[in-house]
Amino acid sequence: MAFATVLIDGNNFYASCEAALDPALIGRPLVVLSNNDGCIVARSAEARALGIAMGVPYFQVRRQLERQGVVVRSSNYALYADMSQRLMATLEPWVEELEVYSIDEAFGRLHRPAGAGPGKGSRGGDLSAWGLALRRQVRRHLGLPVAVGIAGSKTLAKVANRLAKQNPIQQGVFDLGAVPDPDPWLEQVPVEEVWGIGRKLSRWCRLRGVATARQLRDLPSGELRARCGVVGLRLQQDLRGHSCLLLQSVVPAKQETCVSRSFSEPVTSLAALREAIATYLSRAAEKLRRQRQRTGTVTVFVRSSPFNGTSLYANAATTTLPLASNDTAVLLAAALPLAERLFKPHKPLQKAGVLLQNLQPVEQLQHHLLVPLPPEQQQRREALMATIDGLNRRYGRGTVQWAACGLRPAWAMKRERLSRSATTRPADLPVVWAD
User: What percent of the chain has pLDDT over 70?
Assistant: First the structure.
């Protein structure tokens, strides 16, 4: 049996998550905004049909959206992350191997049967029926629409997924590996839309008359190798159906972890900056523990707005821990003193963040002779962190918070059109009254 590679992609994922929890939004134009309600970062199909552009600042199109009856939502990251986890859990039993590629995309690998189908006698049995069944189950369990692209390699699966979305007759599923002749389909895909082709490489291709995925596939390998090296050859081999980009079912260990946000209003006091750093560091420490890692280096960075009429101020400060840790209290003690080195009274700050580097797995801890850490103390601290993380997972983020983060900071991210987080926060569950 031959193997098939599939790409399952959530359609308009952020907007679809909003509609899944609020059925009144189904069929209505909907856009989702970025941090601080700045720009449009997601659109429903109905909003796309109205010609609403991606990335446009909200204040520029606010009146237009009101006239067109477009529903506007702030980004609800807790909801999207939870729906993503549910989506991946739903997909896992359907494939033999799964790679989570992004919050709304996953590659899968499964055997392609040799049974009857449109591709019989050419490339194996058609998996379109399998894709349609998967699509129905995701819709039934989560209320999310997905597109399924099926082919012999990752790059071709990306192409098939794009074709599944663009051709309504495909019903959201396209098996490129089962068609008798894939060339007409590859002719429909501009070279810029091929996975891995950036702006510079697409321009290089266009100058040589290579305008489609098929022409890129048939380009002499020597020319492509001279331009892109072995990376370009792998891409071309993937387009030819020879899988060169293997699935990564085990997520590689992260090299660094960063948490940063823009403020809803400029930060002009040291106390507010310390609250922001504490908040971001607390979140970064949670990520470390979930990744089962410790950090040895903490960097705090700040930046003013380039649009406030004054010179841009950007600065960073770094400290090295004598003993790698993921304990929030330890990281706060190391990072908060850096705020005094970064704060300038005459420089209103627009953004701050923390960067954790020199990450190590929790199974390895190099002790320090001058910083004793008895096993009993280490176990108590780890149990405390696990308890705090468990309470926040169960009852919603911020249920147990560090005092240094403040209660209701004025600089917190602006989300005036935030929907409920009914999948992660019990207080947001809808209430139904029955007589």
Answer: 97
Query: What size, in residues, is the chain?
Result: 435
Question: How far, in Å, CA of 64 to CA of 52, rounded?
Answer: 9
Judged by phi (left if over 0) then psi (alpha if -120 to 50, else beta), residue 406 lies in left
The CATH number covering residue 315 comes to 3.30.1490.100
Q: Are residues 164 and 279 in the same domain?
A: no
Could you tell me how many helices (H) and strands (E) the chain has, helices first? Answer: 15, 13
Element containing residue 18 per DSSP (H, E):
helix 13-21
pLDDT tens-digit readout, 84-138: 999 999 999 999 999 999 999 999 999 887 653 333 333 457 899 999 999 999 9
Kind and range of the H or E run holding 296: strand 293-304
Q: Do residues 176 and 261 both lie within one domain?
A: no
Q: Which residues of 131-143 are buried (b: 16+ CB within 10 A; e: fewer)?
A: beebbeebeeebe
Same domain, 11 and 124: yes
Which residue, of 180, 197, 219, is where some domain finishes?
180
Residue 175 has pLDDT above 90, yes or no: yes
DSSP string, 365-418: ---BTTB---HHHHHHHHHHHHHHHHHHHHH-TTSS--GGG-SS-TTSPP-TT-
pTM of the model: 0.84
C-alpha pair distances (Å), 215 with each of 197, 209, 219: 13, 8, 6
Q: Calculate the alpha carbon distances from 301 to 93, 220, 272, 280, 359 in Å.
A: 42, 47, 15, 11, 18
Q: What is the pLDDT of residues 216-263, one digit of tens each?
A: 999 998 888 888 888 888 889 999 888 887 787 677 788 999 999 999
User: Looking at 154, 180, 206, which one is the last position of a domain?
Assistant: 180
Matching residue, tokens 């960097």: 299
Distance CA 109, CA 7 (A): 9
Q: Which residues pair with 315 in a beta bridge?
A: 302
Q: Give the strand pairing for 105-112 and 97-102.
A: antiparallel
The domain of 60 spans 1-180
Assigned token pair, 42: 């997601």
| Residue 111 burial (CB count, 10 A) | 13
Q: Which of 126, 130, 96, 128 is nearest to 114 (CA)?
A: 126
Distances (CA, A) of 53 to 47, 146, 172: 9, 22, 23
**Is the separation of the CB atoms in 61 and 45 below 8 Å?**
no
Which pLDDT band, with edges at 50, 70 and 90, does 298 fall under? very high
CATH number, residue 65:
3.30.70.270
